Amino acid sequence: MERRPVILSGIQPSGRLTIGHYTGALRNWAALQPTHACFFMIADLHAITVRQDPIELRQRTLEVAALFIACGIDPSQSTLFVQSHVPEHTQLTWVLTCFTGMGECSRMTQFKEKSAQYRHNINVGLFAYPILMAADILLYQADLVPVGADQKQHLELTRNLAERFNHLYGQIFRIPEPYIPPVGAKIMSLQEPTKKMSKSDPNDNAVLFLTDSPEDIHRKIRRAITDSGREIRYDEKQRPGLSNLIVLYHIATGKSITEIEHEFEGSGYADLKAALAEALIEFLRPIREEYGRLCDAKDYLQNILLRGAEKARTRAHQTLQLVHNCVGFLPTLTPEAAVGMAHNR
Ligand code: AQP
Predict the structure, then answer these.
(1) Known catalytic membership, residue 196
(2) Is residue 148 located within the same domain as residue 214?
């Protein structure tokens, strides 16, 4: 049978998901799932690099699962799981940590930004975050990793680590390629348009959440920061706020940037904002409604995640065994053999 190319990607349950998660990740995942073997995880191990409230983290994990499905991830086609349910992620991380230089991690832009943002809690996990991400990807022998533009540097480190390991031990890891969408790879904050829109931004008006109500959407778009110009013209460098709104309008309507510029010829920013708010409300409505239905089906979500973790473990364990063998660890039982032994007791 022909091997379908493998995809691994994930999102941290560190807050409510934003329109950026949709354009940078979820919509691309949904588009790729018919032709790829997909592993999509809720990255709770990554989330605790920043202090999380345990009750909220559990709740958010299920909410993120509901949003994955509401955004088109089909659990019968793709493997959907929680990262901490597959212990191989932390096991491979340790081995890779021993192959990573301190300088490689300290160069990472995200580490620099997050250690400035969370000065009171610059923990080793924050520093080692990209090594865990490398383990996530390499465990599944992923060919393609759909990510937003901000994750490109981490993927580069993953490739370097895989090549380093392969150079020493033979062809153990597949070298993954990034998949960065041509549009929407970096949706910017509505209040500081030179900064990425982030779910943990303390300013609620800066972030468009996928589950925002129509009233929230109207308010946030009305208050979005633009510049003092008049003309509706895309210019990412000179007019980042306006350009971000144009990209959002493109996403919500499917119209090209040129079509949008024509549509608003002679109109002002207020016209664009009013049309954008309406378009976003309609665009996000089916996601919000499906999410509402799924949130009431906790058992269904939990079952999907448990089945997904079993499937993910089978694959992850194969890679981990190869790696353990390379570095000289004694073999242990496979999960299947261990289950067999427990049954025979
Ligand atoms: N604004 C964005 N535009 C495009 N893509 C984005 N992604 C996140 N924000 C945008 C993409 O979503 C995937 C998973 O993101 P994540 O939540 O695991 O991590 P993150 O990039 O750190 O997202 P946040 O919202 O900024 O999280 P917090 O606030 O918790 O740090 C990635 O592919 C990412 O590129």
Answers:
(1) yes
(2) no
